[in-house]
Specification:
The structure holds three protein chains of three kinds.
Chain A: E1 7-11, H1 22-37, E2 41-46, E3 49-51, H2 53-62, H3 66-73, E4 89-91, E5 105-109, H4 113-116, H5 123-130, H6 133-139, E6 142-145, H7 148-157, E7 165-167, H8 177-183, E8 193-197, H9 206-212, H10 216-220, E9 224-228, H11 235-239, H12 244-247, E10 250-254, H13 258-266, E11 270-273, H14 282-289, E12 294-297, H15 302-306, E13 310-313, H16 318-328, H17 331-346, H18 350-363
Parallel strand pairs in A: 1-2, 1-4, 4-5, 5-6, 6-7, 8-9, 8-11, 9-10, 11-12, 12-13
Antiparallel strand pairs in A: 2-3
Helix pairs in contact in A: 1-18, 2-3, 9-16, 14-17
Chain B: E1 6-10, H1 13-16, E2 25-27, H2 38-49, E3 59-61, H3 70-79, E4 83-90, E5 102-107, H4 116-131, E6 135-137, E7 144-145, E8 148-149, E9 154-155, E10 171-172, H5 180-189, E11 204-208, H6 211-215, H7 217-232, E12 237-241, H8 253-264, E13 278-281, H9 287-291, E14 297-302, H10 312-315, E15 320-325, H11 332-343, E16 348-351
Parallel strand pairs in B: 1-3, 1-4, 4-5, 5-6, 6-9, 11-12, 11-14, 12-13, 14-15, 15-16
Antiparallel strand pairs in B: 2-3, 7-8, 10-13
Helix pairs in contact in B: 5-8
Chain C: E1 6-14, E2 18-25, E3 33-38, E4 44-50, H1 55-58, E5 68-72, H2 80-83, E6 85-89, E7 94-99, E8 103-105, H3 115-120, H4 136-146, H5 148-160, H6 166-177, H7 183-191, H8 194-198
Parallel strand pairs in C: 1-8
Antiparallel strand pairs in C: 1-2, 2-5, 3-4, 3-6, 6-7
Helix pairs in contact in C: 4-5, 5-6, 5-7
Classes of the chains: A alpha/beta, B alpha/beta, C alpha+beta.
Chain lengths: 364, 359, 216
């Protein structure tokens, strides 16, 4: 019996990473969404070579690309096949090549930070992303953008992409067992706190929180700030700028497992996301999926992801940050927001991620 | 009744990392008091000087790129009422656009002269974005590299005041083509002279250099020829104003090294002795130094010298002005029209070509 | 995987409101069972996964040690000590154990009061490589099914996060084939290495989907 479903090959290069964050996780969610959708005959490719489906499925279960990479590197000659050029190919990130090899190609733009904020990247990284970017866009039949914000930036910088872009929204998918694991774990009682997404990388804007700690309204509050993520050696220089009696308000988690991240978000009152610029801002969605409102900078993709589930502030303004803080800790306002966040997070789901891809494939 | 218009300004993100604005949008003049580079202060000062035509005060948007569209753009637009025009003061690494406004770019000299390679890279990566700009302020770059063409008209804003330039001693040129480091040491060891001593010469050729001009292969033959000519005619003086530091590197040695390397690489032999009439100044001569000269001074400039750093009245001091021009880098007609406004007088445009090549 | 052979036991209830015990499918001991605790009327008062490490279980040949459970009750447990509780496997609804008289532990609620404490009780990552000792036979099954080289490659990736080098494959392959080294022994050797100690990594527990040595 022939498979009458239209075929789509996904370039799984991002999934070859050992630790999956950011784009590898986006790729995993994309594959999962399309698998659940079921309307396409999904195949996988890396650098033009077809990858066995079972290897990719196994990697998705394991949640790491280490074994997939091993399998790819040790593919027997008899297993190696060049993907048919007529198969549509979707790159979940950039192509890293000029494109135009396959009859139908689409790639995904996550953000344009290397273009618009090159000072935050090493030149080699800027070159890697931007040197062939226009050519990549030209060779795409369609370019996916992971947010309206990225799409708008794309069309401003590259007006000839107008009419050839499409949104590709991801979603949050906590492992099913996390809820029951959390319920059966000892209670967390570190006092009232907000989780903060930020690192010392300038774009993440942690310095705004550090400046804001001295604001009278924030200094007087009992709320602590749990900063999730690797601490980094530059943190100490940041901490020096904080009065000693306020330093204890900042708690650094260091690198934690996904489950601990889940627990910390779930036990928090809200999330603070002061980042200057994000392609999508998946941590905000993670917080909202767990019923937590978000205090977010009024920048890039935050309004479309957080919607009415959050309070916004000027990313440079301590005053606005403090005002947003005062609003989000107000119990009646917090309850209002909490009522909206689950609904807002639910609009990002697997069918919504799969649909534009299926539509593109079937339009050919 | 027409709504009161406003100009919006943005600056490179790298400059903002040195200071911490307390708001995304603030009066542009506040940035003049912050720790920005001297070159940016000059550029911003010029823009603000010319902003009196706008009915409303000029505002600076710290990071236009974080408001790309939708609700964030609406938020920004609500906080910049009346904004019609945006000028991105750029160091060539990026050009920022604000949707809905007329966007312009001002490539300000970051250490006297935008790096040509930086511009080529920018065009290669973002030619469409540059094509959306209305004009380039105070430059006439062709923005035509590797098959990509961006036509960008020029808006000329004349200088309005002389920058504060300190009096600088003059060092005698010495070049050992085989040993740049030793040459630099020798130059430092020879006693410098006061610029007033230049009055003892019959005339002065004063060459203000930029990094990119020194890097231009075609300029090396010009450099070698004029140096050699002055070795054989010590009645006139030759003064090179080395490019100012670019803010990235410390000290003036990189400029001296760049100059000596360019001189080394000319096809002209350079005598290995300290010239009596060929001088190096680490930066432009001060106004005071020029004002005391009562001999003719011929000014030589690069096409990417920041002509706007001085008002047209400054350029009247010179007997003649010659601008070395790179046809591939600049558009000639556009440059001529711009320079006429910025210099406020006649000048000679000298296209840089390989020796022996026809026009 | 063969037919499910389910076993379980209710061990204790605690003053702090937890019910403890163990449950497993002997045919697939690393596939954690979702269990429910029912009261005498059949109402569910707690639910959770039987995936907790219990050193005493690992001494039992039937369990690799990862089949304990500790679930939080939704009601006060003091009344149920005499009334009895049932342990039920949720998927099959099979009752694994009924107890009329469960031992009460005077253990009081201990909340986690620091980030470090929260991280220290992460049930998804190993505290110590020794917690895998009870998985020796499962590791052996993997080695037998996939081959020595595949096992070594998986071990390197799991412990060190990198591909195995040729020297390692050669050395450890020889030792494994000669039975001079057991599969768990290899994991422990890699975890004791300078490389691991200088860059320690979080190792996922065997009951999570990311554990690479499960055959199903």
């Amino acid at each position: 019996m022939t498979n009458s479903k239209p075929a789509l090959a996904i370039e799984i290069g991002p999934m070859l990473e050992d630790i999956w964050t950011g784009i590898p996780v986006f790729t995993r969610r994309l594959v999962s969404a399309l698998t659940q959708d079921g309307r396409l005959d999904l195949r996988f490719v890396h650098n033009y070579v077809e990858i066995p489906v079972d290897a990719v499925r196994s990697a998705m279960v394991l949640g790491t690309g280490s074994f997939l990479r091993e399998r790819y590197e040790h593919l027997a000659m008899s297993e190696r096949r060049i993907l048919d050029l007529n198969t549509p190919v979707l790159y979940p990130s950039s192509k890293s090549n000029l494109g135009g090899i396959y009859a139908r190609e689409a790639s995904t733009v996550h953000d344009l930070s290397t273009l618009v904020m090159p000072e935050n990247h090493v030149e080699a990284n800027v070159a890697y992303h931007m040197d062939h970017f226009e050519d990549e866009l030209e060779s795409n039949e369609l370019t996916f953008a992971i947010s309206q914000s990225t799409d708008a930036a794309l069309q401003t910088a590259f007006p000839n992409t107008a009419g050839r872009t499409q949104l590709l929204y991801q979603y949050v998918d906590w492992p099913d067992e996390f809820e029951v694991l959390d319920r059966n774990s000892p209670r967390i009682d570190i006092g009232r706190y907000a989780v903060v997404i930020g690192t010392v990388e300038p774009r993440k804007n942690l310095s705004l929180l550090i400046d804001a700690l001295s604001h009278p309204d924030i200094a007087a509050s009992e709320i602590k700030f749990v900063i999730i993520g690797k601490r980094g050696w530059l943190v100490d220089s940041f901490l020096q700028n904080i009065p000693a009696h306020l330093r204890g308000r900042l708690l650094f988690s260091g690198f934690v497992s996904d489950f601990i991240k889940y627990r910390l978000i779930k036990a928090a009152e809200f999330m603070i996301f002061p980042s200057m610029y994000e392609g999508f801002g998946i941590p905000a969605l993670e917080a909202m999926s767990l019923g937590k409102p978000v205090m977010a900078a009024m920048t890039s993709s935050f309004p479309e992801v957080v919607g009415e589930g959050g309070i916004y502030f000027d990313p440079f303004s301590v005053t606005e940050f403090a005002e947003a803080f005062a609003e989000i800790i107000n119990p009646s306002r917090a309850a209002e927001l909490a009522a909206k966040v689950l609904k807002q997070s639910s609009i990002f789901n697997p069918p919504r991620m799969a649909a534009p891809v299926v539509e593109w494939v079937c339009s050919g | 009744m027409r709504a009161a218009r406003r100009l919006i300004v943005s600056v490179p993100g790298r400059e903002l990392q040195k200071i911490r604005p307390s708001s995304s949008i603030f009066p542009a003049e506040q940035l003049l008091d912050d720790g920005i580079s001297p070159a940016l202060r000059d550029a911003l000062g010029l823009v603000l000087h010319h902003s009196s035509e706008w009915e409303q005060p000029t505002l600076l948007v710290a990071r236009p790129e974080i408001f790309p569209g939708g609700e964030t753009l609406s938020w920004l637009q609500n906080r910049i009422p009346g904004a019609t025009t945006h000028v991105a003061i750029s160091d060539g690494s990026a050009v920022k656009l604000i949707p809905g406004l007329k966007n312009h770019v001002f490539f300000y000299s970051f250490g006297n002269g935008i790096d040509e390679n930086v511009l080529k890279t920018l065009v290669r990566r973002t030619s469409r974005q540059l094509g959306a700009l209305r004009s380039q302020w105070n430059s006439a770059y062709a923005l035509r590299f590797e098959g990509k063409n961006v036509s960008l008209p020029t808006t000329a804003l004349a200088g309005y005041h002389n920058p504060l330039i300190p009096d600088r001693p003059l060092f005698k040129l010495y070049l050992d083509k085989g040993n740049i480091a030793a040459s630099m040491e020798t130059i430092s060891a020879i006693p410098a002279i006061d610029s007033a001593r230049l009055n003892s010469y019959s005339q002065i050729t004063y060459v203000t250099l930029t990094h990119s001009l020194l890097g231009a292969e075609k300029f090396r033959s010009v450099l070698g020829k004029v140096v050699l000519e002055h070795f054989f005619d010590d009645s006139s003086a030759l003064v090179f104003a080395l490019p100012e530091t670019d803010g990235k590197t410390q000290g003036v040695s990189p400029s001296l090294e760049a100059f000596l390397t360019a001189a080394r690489d000319t096809t002209f032999p350079i005598p290995k002795l300290a010239a009596s009439n060929i001088f190096l100044s680490f930066g432009e001569l001060s106004d005071a130094a020029l004002d005391v000269l009562d001999v003719p001074v011929m000014l030589w400039l690069s096409d990417d010298t920041a002509l706007w750093r001085h008002p047209p009245s400054y350029y009247q001091k010179f007997e003649s002005i010659r601008v070395y021009f790179r046809p591939g880098l600049m558009r000639e007609k556009q440059f001529n029209e711009m320079a006429a406004i910025l210099l406020g007088r006649k000048f000679e445009l000298s296209p840089l070509r390989f020796p022996g090549s026809s026009r | 995987m063969g037919r499910a052979v389910l076993r379980g036991h209710l061990d204790t209830i605690t003053v702090s409101g937890f019910i403890e015990g163990w449950a497993l499918n002997i045919s697939a001991p690393l596939q954690p069972l979702l269990i429910g605790i029912l009261d005498g009327d059949g109402a569910e008062i707690a639910r959770g996964r039987a995936d907790r490490f219990r050193p005493d279980l690992s001494e039992n040949a039937l369990s690799p040690g990862w089949n304990g459970f500790r679930v939080r009750a939704s009601v006060s447990l003091l009344d149920y000590r005499e009334r009895g509780l049932s342990l039920c496997e949720c998927a099959s609804q099979k009752v694994l154990h009924q107890s009329k008289k469960i031992k009460l532990l005077e253990e009081h609620d201990h909340a986690l009061t620091s980030i470090e404490e929260v991280i220290s009780v992460d049930p998804t990552v190993l505290l110590d490589i020794e917690q895998l000792r009870g998985c020796e036979s499962i590791l052996g099954q993997f080695l037998h099914a996939k081959g020595v080289e595949a096992f070594i490659r998986a071990a390197y990736v799991y412990v060190l996060g990198r591909s195995a080098d040729r020297e390692g494959i050669g050395l450890y392959g020889k030792l494994l084939r000669q039975a001079a080294l057991t599969p768990f022994g290899l994991l422990r050797t890699l975890a004791d290495s300078d490389e691991f100690r200088s860059r320690p990594r979080q190792l996922i527990v065997p009951t999570m989907a990311g554990f690479p040595f499960r055959l199903s």
